[in-house]
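Fold this complex.
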Amino acid sequence: MDEVRLIEVKEGILADNKKTAEALKQSLKSKKVFMVNLMASPGSGKTSLILKTIEALRKDLTIGVIEADLDSKVDSEKIAAQGIKAVQLKTGGFCHVDATMVAKGLDAMNPDGFDLIFIENVGNLVCPAEVDTGAALDAVILSVPEGDDKPLKYPVIFAAVDVLVVNKMDFMELCDFNLEAMKERVRALNPGIAIFEVSSRTGQGVEEWSNWLKNKVREYQA
Amino acid sequence: MHELPVIESILKVSLSHGAKNNVQKIMAIHLQVGELSDLEDEWMQRYFDHLSKDSIAAGAVLKIERMPVVMNCEDCRESFQVDIKNVKDIVCPLCQGKNNKLISGREYFIKSMEVL
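Structure:
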């Protein structure tokens, strides 16, 4: 009878993705294209925030969007209707985008000449946080109706991002949402995080968030 | 849904090492999984059984070791383990600093395989 032997593997599953993501980062840096990975739950307002941000910044920056969805074009059609270049990635049931998928989207877009490219990740607070997309900035939206306990339930994503946008601030009166407690929870996980309070519907806070983002793009390009 | 791509990647890595080492059958795979992973052992095994059924890894047992969440203090450079369920106060045990960075706890690492 054959003997069972032990072979060493010593390989992480995200190693390949990490390499692809690093290569993307370098390539985008050399082209001075700032890429933002925007993550959030379904219905938190990712597309609306992107549209509002485009409205605020389109006179200063050339902006493109890579839309990731399981299997639809609803969001990319909304973006394209504004005259903004949008590329649709269908993830075919995968719950997040990885660096290889983003690379395909960038090929379809031809990033030369863009200042800012958003990746609208699949609506999900779980696994997008674990996968490097090659973006220069990782952002998460938490909308008020979702509740202030989300950083407790999905700590990984709140620990991993550079910026949190609290969206649907106009819902605050209707919800038992403790903004200060939520911020405290997030900062315990991620002390350096930037936090913005906005409402894409009323426009509250959009200017502040957009200006901050524009400065990030300019710093990166300098 | 996250199980699918994760387990697919684990299988891919295992099979490529199996091919390199002239393996006839993979009996067990020793995995190190960070405590921040929300994948349950039972479901990882079920997805694995489904995806591996026509390969040399069919029937292999996933032996999963959970790895602690480790953070590093940006102020005094001390590394320490964190009970991640207790998110209220992540402070450095040495200098009480709150400026801490995640070092590990999110990994899926294939350590070794038992093979024929």
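Chain B has one domain: 3-115.
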